[in-house]
Each structure stands twice: as C-alpha cells, then as structure tokens.
Amino acid sequence: MAERAKTERMPRAQRREQIMAAATRAFARGGFAATGLDAVAAEAGVTHVILYRHFASKADLYQAVLDRTHARLAEHVGTGDFDDGSIPALLRAAAADPDGFRLLFRHAAREPEFREQIDTLRARSIEIAEHQLAEQIPDIDPSWRNWAARLLPTVTLEAVIAWLDAGRPDPDRAAERIQRAVDGVIQAAREH
Fold first, then answer.
1. Do the beta carbons of residue 94 and residue 178 sit within 8 Å?
2. Residue 80, Ramachandran bin (φ over 0: left; ψ between -120 and 50: alpha; else beta)
C-alpha cells in the first residue's frame, strides 16, 4: 500500500517518462507483438491502472516510445546531410539509448503497424545519400549510385547495432571502422 501511495504521488511527466523508459526496455527485448502490458507494468513497477492513465493502449505506448526515440536520434544526428560527424553522432545516440536504438531499427522495422515511420526515415536517408553521392562522385553510373544510396543506411545502422550487440568494443575507434565499411560500399559502386 505504501508503494502504491508513492507511485500515485510522482509528478505526471516524471511518471510518463518512467513508463516510457521501462516500455523501451521491455519492447526492445521482444518487439511489440511479443511484449504484453504485464511485462511493461512489471518493468516500470506500476499497475495497469497507472499505465492506462498515461496511454490509451499498448499501441499508443509503443508509438510514443518510437516517437521519443526518433526525436532523440534527430537531436544527436540531425536531419540534414551526412558529414564526418554523422557516424560518431549515431554511435553516441545508440550508446545513450541502446534499447531505443534497437527498438527503432530492429523491431519497429518488422512491425507492420509501425513500419511506416521507419520506412519514411529510411527513404529520407536514401535520398540524402543519393544526393551526396551525386555531388561527390558525379561520374558514377546512376544505377550503382542508387544501389549504394540504398545500401549505405543499412550498412551503417547494422554496423551500429552489431557494435552494440558486441558490447561496444573500442568506442574511440568504432566510428572509424564503420566509416571503412561505408567507404567500401562507395568504392564498390565506383568500380566499373
């Protein structure tokens, strides 16, 4: 009973943040379909009643978590062109919220209800990459430029997730290693 009274006195914004942080961890373990609200409530240390005071449904909670993660990613990385700071910024964003990063790029991409957000993010990344490749290497065959532009976001994101999954080895040189993988894709597109 004392725990419930403590739970009810937490300021609304703080409680909402606590629930979303717990939901991020819970959803990152199994995705949307495999994670019930019982798991989220247990992770947050709250009751279902408290969950429903903040979120109308599991889908609303999941979308809120995705939106928060996407906003944090945009704060770290930006939404414009890629530059020398993009990969280090992406690594910092992933390290700051590994569960959110995995959720956004591993689970949400496989969840039909939530895939649109990821597809939009991916389409924008491809558009930026293709534009930059056209400026940097204008003599490249357009079909290979398109191939590279589609592959670059995938290689980069999978490299960051693999880095997280491997325990974040050599964080000071991780960006350099990922950049070499990116450069390999660009070099492969250049070859005639």
1. no
2. beta
Locate 150 and state its tokens.
């589609």
Banded model confidence at residue 4, pLDDT cuts 50, 70, 90: very low
6-65 pLDDT tens trace = 445 788 899 999 999 999 999 999 899 999 999 999 999 999 999 999 999 999 999 999
**Residue 137, burial from CB neighbour count under 10 angstroms (0-12, 13-18, 19+):** middle
Asked whether the beta carbons of 156 and 178 are under 8 A apart, the reply is: yes
Compare 158 and 112 and report the one with higher pLDDT. 158
114 CB burial (10 A radius; 0-12, 13-18, 19+): buried
CB atoms within 10 A of CB 143: 9
CA–CA gap between residue 188 and residue 169 (Å, rounded): 27
Q: Between helices 115-136 and 142-165, what is the axis angle to 10°?
A: 120
- For residue 6 the two structure tokens come to 């403590």
pLDDT, tens digit (0-9, with 9 covering 90-100), for 107-146: 988 888 888 888 998 999 999 999 999 998 888 899 999 9
Give how far the C-alpha of residue 95 lies from the chain's centroid of Cα atoms, to the nearest Å. 11
Closest CA relative to residue 98, chosen from 126, 72, 61 = 72
